[in-house]
Amino acid sequence: MILLRSKREIEKMRWSGGIVADIMDELEELIAPGVRTIDLDRRAGARMEKSGARSAFMGYASPVPGVPPYPGNICVSIDEAVVHGIPGERVLEEGEIVSIDIGVCCNGYYGDMARTMPVGKISSEKKALIETARESLARAVEKARSGNRLGDISHAIESCAEERGFSVVRDFVGHGIGQQMHEEPQIPNYGRPGSGPRLNAGMVLAMEPMINAGGHGVKVLEDGWTVVTADGKPSAHFEHTVAIGENGPEIMTWRKKSR
Ligand code: MF3
Ligand code: CO
């Protein structure tokens, strides 16, 4: 069942989404060669505390038995890392691309977003990859309208990536979001237009295209979390929490400051 959120609940999600977006913009300004991924995590953790929010990721249980709970406030995934990179001593280097994923819970409601950013000067292929992933999310958001179907969102992402010769990750999906980070439905990044459940005003969806420069295959590293491309080629990830309103999509993960 896909839950429908009241105006009051949407307002709370707007608040949580605003916190996430503010932190993302703050971290983006810190991205530079020489910065450790743990520095980004600590800054995010401090900002969450200041905002009265908690990390949605810290302590998150892995579905895989024996893998310890997620140990970071945020995920930081570099180059061939697709998602769920654990912050640590690794230092960002010129020419890399870094995907930051931030999720919080505030007043009982979640916000979740991701963005891939360049570290200094990057190759034209990496630029194209980032722009494609950004564009595929924009096209997906555009489909988040009452009366459309879930497959319209999935297809918008897939077709955007494949038009440009890139591929979409098939092993991880977007998701409904609200009083839990992961709610129904699952949102694959590929699919047929006109298929799947019908979308309605009040649904809130976290859409998250993960686009690979090479093939769609991925594997998980020894740490049990970090997902990397099977072929070692770079990957980009964008995510927004989006509410379906009466008059179309509204991005919840938008800066509070610009409102
Ligand atoms: N945005 C990701 C998701 O929706 C981040 C989860 S990281 C985890 O699954 F640690 F919480 F799993
Ligand atoms: Co998510």
Query: Judging by the overall fold, what is the CATH architecture?
Result: Alpha-Beta Complex
- β-strand percent reads 25-35%
> And the CATH topology?
Creatine Amidinohydrolase
The ordered string of helix (H) and strand (E) elements is: HHEEEEEHHEEEEEEEEEE
Poorly predicted regions: none
The first-level CATH class is given as Alpha Beta
What does the radius of gyration come to? Answer: 17 Å
Shape: globular
How many runs of DSSP E, i.e. beta strands? Answer: 15
Into how many domains do the coordinates divide?
Answer: 1
Largest sheet at a glance?
Answer: 5 strands, antiparallel
Bound molecules: 2-amino-4-trifluoromethylsulfanyl-butyric acid, cobalt (II) ion
Tell me the name of the CATH homologous superfamily.
Creatinase/methionine aminopeptidase superfamily
Please work out how many helical segments DSSP would assign. 4
Mean pLDDT: 97
Task: Write the topology of this structure.
Layout: H1 7-30, H2 37-50, E1 54-55, E2 75-78, E3 81-83, E4 97-106, E5 109-118, H3 124-143, H4 150-163, E6 167-168, E7 174-176, E8 183-187, E9 204-207, E10 210-212, E11 218-220, E12 227-229, E13 235-237, E14 240-245, E15 248-251
Antiparallel strand pairs: 1-4, 2-4, 3-12, 4-5, 6-10, 7-8, 7-9, 9-14, 10-13, 11-12, 14-15
Bound molecules: 2-amino-4-trifluoromethylsulfanyl-butyric acid and cobalt (II) ion.
